User: Fold this.
Amino acid sequence: MKTTSYSTKSGFEIKDMDSATRKVAVYLAKFDNMDSDGDVIRKGAFAKSIMEHGPQSASNRKIAFLRHHDWQQPIGKFLELSEDNNGLLAVAEMGRSSLAEDAWKDYEDGIIREHSIGFQYIKDKMSFVEDETLPMKGYYEIREVKLYEGSAVTFGANEMTNVISVMKSEERATFLNQLNLSFNNTLKSLLERRESSEGAFEYEMKLKYINSQLLQLASAESEIHSVKNEPLTIVTEFDWFNVINKINV
Assistant:
């Protein structure tokens, strides 16, 4: 069973771009195809999130449009989020910040080619379907998720997992140091804004994402040690809930 509190998943193609209005239409996810995580997302999986936190909702905490799942890099806002028979379709308008301008240029230059979602699995809304013809002997049918954000990325989340797994040891050490620095800076910012739950939300999400990257890195290390038949170090998920609870005391 999947255990990370914040997960990412590769998105798909750019559907349309309008230079005059700086709007993009993209598919953030597709339905009914098995991805590299062994997941099959069904139509309707995003309906509740869109209703509660979509562009037309009354929520102040709307589903965000980010770059690289970084909650400190918003690049625009979603004008429309909807499900069609193909997948999760998003229409977004780029912002006027330098981050958004850079992202728009990357769209035009073909540097941004993929999209990815940041979400949380819902335990009772997923089930394992056995199929002996598949390498994993089945797949997870995902009927609902809690969607936090959609991101413009250079490489989707699943591809990034592969990149981590083939990193040299010194590259993994650098990546770990960068994650540690980002974690500490995010935690400091969260502490400084502890009086405002709305203001702290972006940092809470950032911590969740950093945690997911740490788990991917730990998983890659475990696979390497397994190949070498070396003892494994058991890595447990960081208890960010405990951090948040202490902040709110």
User: Anything to note?
Assistant: The first strand starts at residue 7 and ends at 10. The mean pLDDT is 79. Residues 167-248 form one domain. The CA atoms of residues 215 and 236 lie 8 Å apart.
